[in-house]
Amino acid sequence: MSYQPPPFNYTQPPYGYVPLPLVSTQPLEIAPLLQRTRGGAPISWLVSDHPSTATTNMLLPHGRAWQNEQATYPPVSSLTIWSGPTGDRPIVVRGNPYVTVWDVLLTVHHAIRDVAQERFQPVHQQHLLSFPPSYHHPIPHPTPSEQEVRQWVLNHLNGRYTWRGLKPYEPESWVLHIR
């Protein structure tokens, strides 16, 4: 038996939306620690800061570390988050063997930093004149200081830094809320 690709759909644009296969056979729920609630998010964190600064007001049984809690029920190895700060670029969180709360916070933090750095990091004129950019020879950037990157993140977020949690968006994807 040979595999045949599906027929080409000429009625949709070539870059149209393609739904991904579900990662779980059961309905997926986000962990209460990560949920956006009316009473406020269980996690207190400025997304511009490293996730190690995050705290929670939820008590877990037996003194378990809240960062190591699974991010979804049932647990999955990847999770998709959409957010205003990253625009049309999804934040894909991966975990081994499953995604944890820490994986979510760290990946969100890095995704926002990456977008801010792409937006604000200057391209030095000497590099533009020395050779044309190409796929094989990207324009080099000097390594920015942590203070510079932090300022870019703050500028990019435009006063909205506080983690407010995740809300369901589509099956198996969530929207990040910050204020």
From TrEMBL:
It holds the Pfam family DUF6699. It comes from the Eukaryota. Residues 43-168 form the DUF6699 domain. This is DUF6699 domain-containing protein. The lineage of its organism: Eukaryota, Fungi, Dikarya, Basidiomycota, Agaricomycotina. InterPro entries: DUF6699 (IPR046522).
